[in-house]
């Protein structure tokens, strides 16, 4: 009997097949994976997903389903298994050019400070490469980066793009992306953590190792010998592997400051610190409208007006738990569900009924920061 992860995985494969007219090819790969965990079929499916996601003519819905299918494959196998398959068999080729990647970076909503910093880094590295080609002395600065800011501000997205850009510049041999947390780095027994960190470093060579909430490694710095062992090994790798590895550590600004002060020499391995600021209400509104448009939903005039009021209030009253882009994803998911519950009761709904997010769809909206939304349903507004 198939479990829920298998069923979700196969359903998404079938859906993507139908959307792209794949004649069952994607589904065939998926069935081979669930039946025998075939590594070659796994690579073939991942390459197919990459092709679908990169094809500019494909709709946002197709690209979303492709990404969701890839995420579902990771859930089915487990992240480390997929990583091992890709590392040991084939590192998928990213067909995006440097201009494609720069366009993708610069098209991200908001993040003006981040884009400026990253573009400056790219310009610097390009000039160093040109100097090297002309037999001039090229400065060998560390490529490792620190991303500071709250969750949902685009740190992971930018880290992925940076890895691919560095690959296009010839600074990394593969450009792949590995994301880890404390549990991926620290073992349960003394002496095993160093081995675990070495394995992660080895897998990440040629690409980007992204450590989110990096300060969790040393969260119990007075009693956590495992955390200290991990940090010692990681600090060594930052220097030893800097020719073909980029380590990006990320997290809230204040805890990250403590993290850098927890080990002598750690901060010197990083010379670029990029602050990811919270999104403005206007930027969050653009995200929601873009998300809706990508799946052929439209906010009505009244809905746009009230969404603006909600976002302005959320931004004005935000605290450290403010979720930025994740908040918008949650709002979008709830709006789509509320829309479905309303429209399912309409007999023979029109295209407009199926597409328009109405003011009623905001009823009962659950937000991470409590906001009184009862005014949305006031017919006198």
UniProtKB/TrEMBL annotation:
Residues 141-280 form the AAA+ ATPase domain. Pfam families: AAA, AAA_lid_6. Keywords: ATP-binding, Nucleotide-binding. GO terms for molecular function: ATP binding; ATP hydrolysis activity. The keyword ATP-binding applies. InterPro entries: AAA+_ATPase, AAA_lid_6, ATPase_AAA_core, CbxX/CfxQ, CbxX/CfxQ_RuBisCO_ESX, P-loop_NTPase. Belongs to the CbxX/CfxQ family. This is AAA family ATPase.
